[in-house]
Amino acid sequence: MERVIHIDTEIDSSLPLGPQVYELLKKGIVQAQFKPGDRASEVEISRQLEVSRQPVREAFLRLQAGGLLDIRPQRGTFVQKISVKAVLDARFLREAIESDIVALVAVSRKAAVIAELKKQIKAQRKVAKADPVSFMKLDDLFHRTLAEAAEKSSAWQFIEDLKTQMDRVRFLSFNHFHVEQLIAQHVSIVDAIESGSSTDAVRYIRNHLREILKSLPMISHEHPDYFDPVSDELADTTTIININ
Q: Which pTM does this prediction carry?
C-alpha cells in the first residue's frame, strides 16, 4: 500500500519557509522516516504545515536536485531510492577534500583547535551508540571543525550538500558501526594533528572515511528496497579499502 508522507512538525512563520520545508523533508528522508516509494503530496504537505504551495514546490525541486525526490509529471512525487554510485562518488570526493583539510590543520597545529577537537571527542564518548542522531551530529561537528580550522568552510558546505546519500546509508547501517572504533579513529586524527604529522593525519582520515565501504554491501543486501539495483561498483569496495 502506498504511503503518503506526513509531517507533524510546526515551522516558524517568521523565517523563510522554503528552507524549513526542505530541511524537514530532507531530515525525514535521510533518517529513513520516509522510505523509498513514499509519496510526497504538495497539497498535503502545504496543508499540514499551513503554508502555501510555493515553498513546498521549492523544497521539492531542491530535493529532486539532490537525488532525494523523484518528481514524475502527472503521476506524483516519490522518495528516491539510494544510488550506490552516488554514495561511492560522494565518498571519493569527500576523502579527497578532507585529506587536504587535515594536512593543513596538522601544519598549523593550533592549540585551541586541538583542545576543541578533544572536547568534542569526550562528548562523542558520552553519547556513543545510545543515541545515533546525536552521535552523527557530533561526528559532523568534528569534521566541520576541521574544515573551519583549515579556513575551508566553503569546502565543508560543499561536503554537506554532497554527503546526503552517504548519510542515508549511515542511518541504515548505524547498528553495524563500531562507534568506539570511529571515536578511536577521531583520536588518532587529532593525535596526528597535535604531533604535526600531516602524513599520518591524511592516512587516518582516509581510513576513517572508508568505513562506509565495509558496511555498504551488507546494508544494500539487508535493505534492498532502499537501493537502486546494486551495481558492479560494490565489488570494487574491498580494493578501495585496502589502498594505503
A: 0.88
